């Protein structure tokens, strides 16, 4: 279902200059654009692929990449800010069954030196919620995976969740994903998630070429 619409322009990906900056051909003009997903994204950001970019109010950059073409008018949703916004919107619309008895309190909660994305409250208790972008897609089993590289910060956050009243939610940003699985690109993550299997959830969302944000599954299958 469509839960929102964002203003986007279509461009052609040229190259990634560094972790946060890419070059895109925007109607014949080479534009440097922001990227806030810190994964490698080697399977998505390929030279010549169509991308959707969204206007931003940056001091140096005017656009940010939010999605990459999959097929036809179907695009991934790789922008982590947009994933967070749509997660909260989906919750407000009652689309997240695992949070149906919880209300959102605030963002960016610091606990014992680690910052987690959200704090919810329900049944008289606070619930820490960490959102992770799972856009690493395996077509052979239609799985969305996390991570696509070594992530020290991710390890620390997930380890900390073991001893907190909290959950981790993976955002499968690929429209064809049917299951979430941990990736062995970071060999420690699968073992950590196995210990967190009762606290692990996944959802799926994607973009259309016209900027429609699709919420496709509020309780995606998880295999850890």
Structure in words:
The chain has helices spanning 80-92, 152-161, 189-195; strands at residues 2-5, 9-16, 21-26, 29-34, 50-55, 63-71, 74-75, 103-111, 114-122, 125-134, 136-138, 143-146, 166-172, 179-182, 200-208, 212-217, 221-222. By secondary structure, the protein is mainly beta. The longest helix has 13 residues, at 80-92. The mean pLDDT is 97.
Secondary structure tally: strands: 17
- Mean pLDDT rating: 97
Structural class: mainly beta
Gyration radius, rounded = 17 Å
Low-confidence stretches: none
* H-E order: EEEEEEEHEEEEEHEEHEEE
The count of helical stretches stands at 3
Strand content: over 45%
Largest sheet composition: 13 strands, mixed
- Binned, the helix content reads 10-25%
**Which outline best applies?**
globular
Show the helix and strand layout:
Layout: E1 2-5, E2 9-16, E3 21-26, E4 29-34, E5 50-55, E6 63-71, E7 74-75, H1 80-92, E8 103-111, E9 114-122, E10 125-134, E11 136-138, E12 143-146, H2 152-161, E13 166-172, E14 179-182, H3 189-195, E15 200-208, E16 212-217, E17 221-222
Parallel strand pairs: 10-13, 12-14, 13-15, 14-17
Antiparallel strand pairs: 1-16, 2-3, 2-5, 3-4, 5-6, 6-7, 7-15, 8-9, 9-10, 11-12, 15-16
């Amino acid at each position: 279902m469509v839960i929102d619409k964002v203003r986007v322009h279509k461009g052609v990906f040229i190259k990634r200059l560094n972790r946060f900056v890419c070059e895109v051909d925007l109607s014949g003009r080479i534009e440097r654009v922001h990227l806030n997903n810190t994964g490698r994204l080697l399977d998505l950001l390929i030279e010549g692929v169509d991308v959707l970019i969204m206007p931003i109010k940056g001091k140096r950059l005017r656009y940010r990449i939010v999605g990459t073409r999959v097929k036809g008018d179907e695009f991934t949703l790789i922008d982590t800010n947009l994933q967070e916004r749509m997660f909260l919107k989906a919750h407000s619309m009652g689309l997240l069954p695992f949070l149906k008895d919880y209300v959102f309190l605030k963002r960016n909660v610091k606990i014992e030196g680690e910052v987690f994305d959200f704090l919810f409250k329900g049944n008289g208790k606070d619930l820490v919620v960490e959102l992770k972008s799972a856009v690493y897609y395996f077509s052979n089993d239609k799985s969305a995976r996390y991570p696509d590289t070594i992530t020290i910060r991710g390890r620390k956050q997930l380890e900390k969740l073991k001893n907190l009243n909290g959950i981790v939610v993976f955002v499968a940003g690929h429209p064809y994903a049917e299951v979430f699985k941990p990736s062995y690109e970071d060999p420690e993550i699968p073992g950590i998630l196995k210990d967190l299997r009762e606290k692990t959830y996944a959802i799926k969302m994607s973009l259309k070429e016209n900027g429609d944000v699709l919420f496709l599954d509020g309780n995606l299958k998880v295999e850890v």
